[in-house]
Specification:
Chain A: Belongs to the ABC transporter superfamily. The structure holds 3 protein chains of 3 kinds. Chain A is α/β, with parallel strands linked by helices. Chain A has helices spanning about 45-55, 85-90, 100-105, 110-125, 130-140, 145-150, 160-170, 190-205, 220-225, 240-245, 250-260, 295-300, 320, and strands at about 5-15, 20-30, 35-40, 65-70, 75, 95-100, 180, 210-215, 225-230, 235-240, 305-310, 315. In chain A, helix 4 (about 110-125) packs across helix 5, helix 5 packs across helix 7 and helix 7 (about 160-170) packs parallel to helix 8 (about 190-205). By secondary structure, chain C is α/β, with parallel strands linked by helices. The two termini of chain C are about 15 Å apart. The chains are: A alpha/beta, B mainly alpha, C alpha/beta. Chains in contact: A-B, A-C, B-C.
């Protein structure tokens, strides 16, 4: 498979009154063409910020990308300015995003068709009549009943599930190479969520589009994702195929996360404590205060880089990597 | 980072566990944050200093003013500014500067009393309307709208001409134009605060209505109320000055800026300072209160409470 | 369906809750939203009843009717054997010591202007449960510890706590009156996965220490409900469509909606997910303002037949206390 996106050493900081927050800290990962990868972690772990950084959508100030590179189809995106023509062409054209809240992502004062048409005329420079035709066709592809008529509706006239279908359709309009779905189905009801996930899965397979699923829902990851990156306190702490990670989690956080999900007949083992504050963090392992495997060296040395274990599996746990425990 | 550990028996974590100090968000010094945001804009700082100076001027008028407010110097009627009378004298030979200094007492006291009175009445009615909802709210709010539709100066003039002239009359005449604004503000605020689950939690715990209104709802309406009150200080001072200018306000010979403007108006060609100086005093004070109100609005913004961002 | 009321903490019988839709200056009623239509179930002492369903199905309304924040339009709410469906405010004040609510949103459920100690101690003051300041302080500290919070934090304000800790504060407040029922309305859905597990375990531990403490656990998360509940009720558009012991319901799901709901929830296990046959429902959840005739689920039901659009299926025993409302079962 062709390499589509390579992110290396990405670091994004936010300045606050209490100090500098490294919301994304030395994050490296890659996405291949047509691949579905997952990015999991709890709120505040930097999973959304890392994706917004890739798209250069971080509000500056207070945020700033301070290091790293984002290579997409052979171009380094960070070389382009935030508002440059190149970046605007990539956003929505080559990479598109689907956000959690479809109500705020759509302009309430414009009809669905006009909003979709605008994306098309902007990126592909086609005329209005053709834009409408393509929009209606896309609406029918994403399963909107009676798309010719619904195209002239305003967002508030659609249900939450329908709006998110529109968002998915909009993200596919210019046939992008990659879609970032940032908690795209979190706000929806269970049965509607299932519909949307199936729809997205079908669409990206049909058009051979890569999909980055940003979510906290391990069930979604288990079902749809091939490879997954686990984020904690701004860092990717473990990465691997879902099967490998589930069967053999190396990092105690990944392990803990998997045990936090209720399973039949098993008692929950919560991870004790809470995620740390990201302000002025020392370079040691961010999971250290909550870790049950911690050793003396963990307190003294900085957290290791994401290190290869086997196959696609990488981890940052020093104890496991160096075999300091027989656990 | 501190990793001081306290061991307590914390259920939900399976027995004895460490509660790490760093798990608590660092305490936020609300006062320091407030001061920092409040004084971030220079214009707010200037406004604040002017308000403080004028308040001090009103309190220490007896010490600061070179002459008494009614002291006449009949040899120097309508005198031009000189070393004894820094701003000159009026048609009765009274020192203009001293009268402006004493006039700040009237402006501030009328402003404060008016604002307190209208805020108290308006808040109470707004609280009841917002809490009751339904027909009672509809009636109160439509009456409020009707009152707000009457031009405020005309309303003040009518009320002032019915009531006795003097401080009390002016206060009531001005307050009556201001309190509907508070009803509106508090009613809207109550409706939004009521959406919070803690109000429902209070009811589910068996709290009395009064406890919910005064313990949970009112304190959470205070920030916009304080901002509104500061802004209304300016409006009240201006209204008092207008009434005095039109001869329905504070009775002469009391030094009131609005009345002084009117008195000086007759000699505008000869001694323009007689009108302009008190007019400027009104303008500066009103402007300063508005700036302070602006700063308060930023500093009391609930979105910023407890946040660390700038 | 109506079981012997003796000894139950809660019995609700044919509960109806209609919310009027009002328009215009005179607030004339133009329609009713039937949030609850004929809901009946009981909660036994020391039991956790899970209540699952999608948004708008009325699960929150049930909880609020039980603690009588709403006055039901019809039917009966019994609390510890007494009919409270039409009790006045002063009677309710006495009863409310014995029941408490835990809300979904850990941010809006705590008054930002009160210190965490005052929040937790408020029920003690309202119901005059302590005699002295010293006793009050001791009791508050005890509640903090019971909920897994350090008693040193009583002076802190809610915004200084994280979401999980705030939910612990909510639970501490709920425990203050030594209640026999806590209605937990989506208590974990706003929390992170690791915090969810902590709160679920906390709730369970509290129950294991007090065998009369019952929960009504309202959630859309079937896995969490399965974990914590002894019995589970599934709701769809204002009605209970299936109710049974938790083990039975998950092992032998009968109602097509319950089956679809279970199927919609992705399991956090890639191996099991691959083997699983999933049912994806078509269509949207209808609005309770204008529910479909007959069985409300029939327009989306893969097994719908003619009868389903004509009459509402009654909740009937399918054997062993497993009740289901479906014409096809």
């Amino acid at each position: 498979m062709e390499r589509l996106l390579t992110v290396s050493g990405l670091t994004t900081e936010f300045r606050t009154e209490r100090g500098t927050v490294k919301a994304v800290n030395d994050v490296s990962y890659h996405v291949d063409e047509g691949e579905i990868i997952g990015l999991v972690g709890e709120s505040g772990c930097g999973k959304s910020v890392s994706q917004l950084s890739v798209m250069q959508l971080i509000p500056n100030p207070p945020g700033k990308i301070v290091a790293g590179s984002v290579e997409f189809e052979g171009q380094d995106l960070l070389r382009y300015g935030r508002e440059s023509r190149e970046m605007c062409a990539i956003r929505g054209g080559r990479i598109s995003m689907v956000f959690q809240e479809p109500m705020t992502s759509l302009n309430p004062a414009m009809t669905i068709c006009r909003q979709m048409g605008e994306v098309l005329t902007e990126h592909l420079g086609i005329d209005k009549a053709e834009a409408r035709e393509r929009s209606v066709d896309m609406l029918s592809q994403v399963g909107i009943p009676d798309p010719g008529k619904r195209a002239d509706d305003y967002p508030h006239q659609l249900s939450g599930g329908m709006r998110q279908r529109v968002m998915v359709g909009m993200s596919m309009l210019c046939n992008p190479k990659m879609i970032i779905a940032d908690e795209a189905t979190t706000a929806l009801d269970a049965t509607i969520q299932a519909q949307l996930l199936e729809l997205m899965y079908e669409m990206v397979n049909k058009y051979h589009t890569a999909l980055v699923m940003v979510t906290h829902n391990l069930g979604i990851v288990a079902r749809y994702v091939h490879r997954v990156n686990v984020m904690y306190a701004g860092r990717i702490i473990e990465s691997g195929t879902v099967r490998e990670l589930w069967a053999n989690p190396m990092h105690p956080y990944t392990e803990g996360l998997l045990k936090c999900v209720p399973k039949l007949g098993e008692r929950l083992v919560p991870i004790k404590g809470m995620p740390p504050s990201l302000i002025n963090r020392p370079p040691t392992c961010p999971f250290l205060p909550r870790c049950r495997l911690r050793q003396k060296s963990c307190f003294e040395e900085p957290v290791p880089e994401l290190t290869h274990v086997e196959g696609d599996h990488y981890t940052t746990c020093r104890v496991r990597l160096e075999g300091l425990t027989d656990d | 980072m501190t990793t001081k550990t306290d061991s307590i028996n914390a259920p939900g974590l399976g027995g004895e566990v460490d509660i790490l100090e760093e798990q608590l968000l660092p305490p936020v010094n609300e006062f320091r944050r407030f001061v920092k945001v409040f004084f971030r804009r220079k214009i707010v700082l200037i406004g604040f200093i002017i308000v403080v100076l004028i308040v001090a001027m009103a309190i220490f008028a007896d010490v600061i003013a070179p002459f008494g407010p009614y002291e006449q110097d009949l040899h120097n009627v309508l005198a031009a500014p000189d070393s004894t009378h820094l701003l000159g004298t009026d048609s009765l030979g009274r020192d203009l500067l001293s009268r402006i200094i004493y006039g700040s007492r009237v402006a501030l006291s009328v402003g404060v009393i008016t604002v307190l009175l209208s805020a108290a009445v308006g808040t109470l009615i707004g609280l009841v309307a917002g809490y009751a909802e339904g027909a009672l709210q509809s009636v109160i709010m439509r009456l409020t709208d009707a009152m707000m539709a009457i031009p405020s100066l005309i309303l003040s003039l009518i009320v002032a001409s019915i009531l006795n002239r003097g401080v009390l009359g002016v206060v009531i005449a001005v307050a009556i134009t201001l309190f509907p604004g508070y009803i509106r503000l508090i009613n809207g605020q109550v409706l939004s605060v009521k959406q919070n689950d803690y109000v429902m939690a209070g009811r589910s715990m068996g709290s009395h209505k009064a406890r919910i209104m005064f313990r949970h709802i009112l304190p959470n309406c205070l920030s916009p109320l304080i901002v509104q009150m500061t802004m209304m200080m300016g409006v009240a001072i201006l209204s008092e000055a207008s009434l005095s200018f039109l001869g329905l306000g504070i009775l002469p010979p009391t030094a009131a800026w609005g009345g002084m403007c009117y008195d000086g108006y007759k000699y505008l060609m000869m001694r323009p300072l007689l009108s302009i100086a008190p007019g400027l005093a009104i303008m500066v004070l009103v402007f300063s209160f508005n700036m302070v109100g602006d700063g308060l609005r930023d500093a009391l913004d609930p979105k910023l409470r407890g946040t660390s961002s700038n | 369906m109506i079981e012997a009321a003796r000894g139950n903490i809660v019995d609700i019988v044919n509960l109806k809750m209609y919310f009027p839709v009002r328009r215009g200056l005179l607030k004339r009623k133009i329609a009713d939203v039937k949030a609850l239509d004929d809901v009946s179930f009981s909660i036994r002492p020391g039991e956790t009843l899970g209540l699952v369903g999608e948004s708008g199905c009325g699960k929150t309304t049930v909880g609020r009717c039980i603690v009588r924040l709403y006055r039901p339009t019809g039917g009966i709410v019994m609390f510890e054997g007494a009919d409270i469906s039409h009790s006045g405010e002063s009677d309710l004040r006495q009863i409310r010591r014995k029941m408490a609510l835990v809300f979904q949103d850990p941010y809006s459920s705590l008054d930002p202007r009160m210190s965490s100690g005052d929040i937790v101690g408020e029920p003690l003051k309202i119901h005059h449960l302590v005699k002295s300041k010293k006793e009050y302080d001791e009791r508050v500290a005890e509640l903090f510890i019971m909920s897994g919070l350090s008693p040193d934090m009583t002076d802190r304000y809610p915004h200084e706590f994280s979401g999980g800790q705030r939910q612990r504060l909510s639970i501490a407040r709920a425990l203050a009156g030594d209640p026999s029922l806590i209605v937990c309305d989506e208590p974990i859905s706003a929390l992170d996965v690791s915090m969810q597990a902590q709160i679920l375990n906390l709730l369970q531990e509290l129950q294991s220490k007090n065998d009369r403490l019952s929960y009504l656990f309202i959630s859309h998360d079937l896995l969490a409900v399965q974990y914590i509940s002894q019995r589970v009720a599934v709701m769809y558009l204002g009605r209970v469509v299936e109710i049974s012991d938790a083990g039975e319901l998950y092992a032998n799901t009968l109602h097509p909606y319950s089956i679809a709901l279970l199927s919609a929830q992705p399991l956090p296990d890639p191996v099991a997910e691959e083997k699983r046959h999933r049912i994806i429902l078509t269509g949207d959840v209808p609005t309770p303002l204008n529910p479909p005739a007959g069985c409300a689920f029939h327009p989306r039901c893969p097994r719908a037949k003619k009868e389903c659009s004509e009459s509402v299926p009654p909740l009937r025993d399918a054997g062993g206390g497993h009740f289901v409302a479906c014409h096809c079962v």
